[in-house]
Amino acid sequence: MSQESSNVNLSVYSYIDDAYTIPELPGSSLVGGVIKIRQKPVLSDDGQTILKKAGVFYETVPPSRDEESWFKDTNVLECIFLHYREEAAHFPTRNSRTVDCRSLNGKYPERFVYSSDCASCPMNPKNMTERGSDSKVPCKFYTSLLVLIKKPGEKDIERAFVPYTIQVTRSGFRNIASFINGTVRGHIMKNLKLAPYAFKTKITITKPKDQEYYVPVFPPAQYYTEQKELLVQGKGMPEDLFSFVKSKRAELLDRFIVDSGPAVKVEGALPSPSHNVSALPQRMIVDASFEDVKEMVDEFSSEINTDLFEEL
Questions:
Q1: How many whole angstroms separate alpha carbon 199 and alpha carbon 188?
Q2: DSSP one-letter code for 264
Q3: Do 118 and 126 contact (CB within 8 A), yes or no?
Q4: Structural domain of residue 68, as residue ranges?
């Protein structure tokens, strides 16, 4: 069905008035829960039984939280994509569960621990000649996607869509870059001229033959073209849900994006080194091609359903 033959006003789903952009994003704090890809199985004490499978999305629950997470391990994650940012974290030892330094924009730490900026930090992998000892563990760099995930069985919109950040390590940067540049910016915003959060996004997991790690796989452009056709037919995301998502996104971005600059050294902190290196993830975000990963996700392009928008 063509847009001209429909009574649906697609301008409702436009990103133009919302000033949607994908800049270099700083940030201030984690938003909602944190989801990661489990790279190795969790084994029993004797190493014989697999307690938790690898190659799935799972929620990282902090030790301080008593209640069990409603989010269950899955290798297919349906969500509404809102935004992204780059992060870095340093763990004092390989076995540490808490970080001693964190950057929520991949450029400047929240406070001075090892350096005033990430590029010159001695814990930046690019600045390290010796790695792996407990005395010098390199920082880990992430890209975090801000998404809404629907809580099963919940019918009230306010409680049904829960904010999460999906943290992806360096092995998945190329796929994320392709999704952001090729699908979000190049197709949804430029070609379809709609807001990316007017659609659902289905993220799967694969382990390429030539790689050691599992990586996220994002849908190709056709996946969103088909969803636009559903919008034209009066299906897909209802207008009241889109209005809620747009409002919720604006609220979350106030916490997700905050201007920041070099951390100020205080008395007793470690000295700042003078290495001269370029910023880390942004080059990948700019240069990767969407075509590089399109073939991996073509099989999911027609699996459109409305489960995410039903029962509300």
A1: 9
A2: P
A3: no
A4: 3-309
Taking the CB of residue 184, how many other CB atoms lie within 10 A of it? 22
Structure tokens at 266: 């205080």
pLDDT number for residue 303: 40
Tokens of residue 119, six digits: 């590029």
DSSP single-letter state for residue 287: H
Instruction: Summarize pLDDT for 113-139 with one digit per residue, the tens.
Output: 899 888 899 999 888 876 554 457 888
Q: Which residues pair with 79 in a beta bridge?
A: 201
CB-based contacts of 181: which residues, under 8 Å, 6+ apart? 285, 286, 288, 290
Q: How many alpha carbons lie under 13 Å from residue 56 in its C-beta half-sphere? A: 13
Widest CA span in the chain = 69
Closest CA to 128 of 116, 119, 136: 136
Instruction: Provide the domain count of the chain.
Output: 1
C-alpha distances (whole Å) from 210 to each of 36, 41, 207, 298 are 21, 20, 8, 20
Q: How far is CA 200 from CA 92, 101, 146, 303, in A?
A: 38, 34, 13, 12
Beta-bridged to residue 147, according to DSSP, are 81, 164
- What is the token pair recorded at 104? 């929520």
Number of residues in the chain = 312
Q: How far apart are CA 269 and CA 58, in angstroms?
A: 35
